[in-house]
């Protein structure tokens, strides 16, 4: 079996659902690939295939398949990606809210919910800004369905507490430092008054550079931690 394929998850009519190595896809094909994708969004994915990144947190595969089936059908009929994404998000969110775990967590106070979302504080990389591994599945179900990989309080102030960076537990441990570098760099620039899209582009550049020059990653991370206030 050639990369990025890891294993076949399901067969739905003529569509093969594959678990893939997301790190390989982001590094060799398209850095914008996140948790899942299909041909009409990412042209390198063969027709009649769904790709889902290997999971490291709360099982979300079925939610992703529900989303992809709807998105794939609409885009195959000519609908633009952004419109198809909006409609598929609504379907996925409906399914998530049926989950028993989400129904239980939704009854808790916001403070208690944040405590449940927090999984592990990364002390080594926490300074004035705390870095948390979080339950990404709950964040997508309760707050923002398109939350992937990571985020921080200046982009998501309505649910990420002040002076926090969140890393999705669905993210491979091998990729955490790259995503953390992106989030810290982006947050620092936004704190200086940069607009999100300009800060995001700069963060994507430094992340890509360090993926190609891994020996520079740790030094850049420590510098961003020091500069984040």
Task: Tell me the β content.
Answer: 15-25%
The H-and-E topology, N to C, reads as: EEHEEHHHHEEHEEHHH
**Uncertain segments:** none
Number of H/I helices: 9
Shape: globular
- What is the arithmetic mean of pLDDT? 89
Oligomer: single chain
Overall structural domain count? 2
DSSP summary, beta strand count: 8
Structural class: alpha/beta
Q: What Rg is obtained from the alpha carbons, in whole angstroms?
A: 18 Å
- Please give the alpha-carbon distance between the first and last residues: 46 Å
Helical fraction equals 40-55%
Fold topology:
Layout: E1 5-12, E2 15-20, H1 22-28, E3 36-38, E4 49-53, H2 61-76, H3 81-96, H4 100-106, H5 110-117, E5 118-121, E6 130-134, H6 136-142, E7 150-152, E8 164-168, H7 176-191, H8 196-212, H9 217-227
Parallel strand pairs: 2-4, 6-8
Antiparallel strand pairs: 1-2, 3-4, 5-6, 7-8
Written account of the structure:
This protein has helices at 22-28, 61-76, 81-96, 100-106, 110-117, 136-142, 176-191, 196-212, 217-227, and strands at 5-12, 15-20, 36-38, 49-53, 118-121, 130-134, 150-152, 164-168. It is of the alpha/beta class and 229 residues long. The protein folds into 2 domains: 5-96, no CATH class; 110-227, no CATH class. The strands form 2 sheets. A 4-stranded mixed sheet has the order 1-2-4-3. A 4-stranded mixed sheet has the order 5-6-8-7, sandwiched between helices. α7 runs parallel beside α9. The protein is globular. The termini are far apart.
């Amino acid at each position: 079996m050639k990369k990025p394929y890891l294993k076949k998850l399901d067969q739905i009519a003529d569509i093969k659902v594959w678990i893939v190595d997301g790190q390989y896809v982001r590094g060799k094909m398209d850095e914008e690939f996140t948790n899942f994708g299909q041909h009409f969004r990412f042209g390198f994915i063969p027709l009649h295939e769904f790709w889902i990144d290997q999971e490291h947190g709360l099982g979300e595969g079925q939610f992703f398949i529900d989303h992809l089936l709807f998105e794939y059908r609409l885009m195959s009929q000519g609908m633009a990606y952004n419109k198809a994404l909006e409609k598929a998000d609504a379907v996925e969110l409906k399914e998530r809210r049926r989950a028993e775990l989400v129904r239980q967590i939704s009854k808790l106070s916001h403070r208690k919910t944040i405590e449940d979302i927090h999984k592990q504080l990364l002390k080594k990389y926490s300074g004035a800004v705390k870095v948390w591994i979080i339950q990404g599945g709950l964040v997508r179900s309760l707050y923002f369905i398109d939350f992937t990989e990571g985020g921080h309080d200046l982009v998501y102030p309505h649910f990420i507490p002040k002076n926090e960076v969140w890393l999705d537990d669905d993210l491979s441990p091998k990729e955490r430092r790259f995503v953390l570098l992106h989030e810290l760099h982006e947050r620092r620039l936004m704190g200086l008054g940069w607009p999100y899209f300009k800060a995001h582009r700069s963060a994507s550049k430094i992340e890509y550079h360090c993926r190609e020059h891994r020996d520079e990653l740790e030094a850049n991370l420590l510098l961003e931690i020091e500069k984040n206030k």
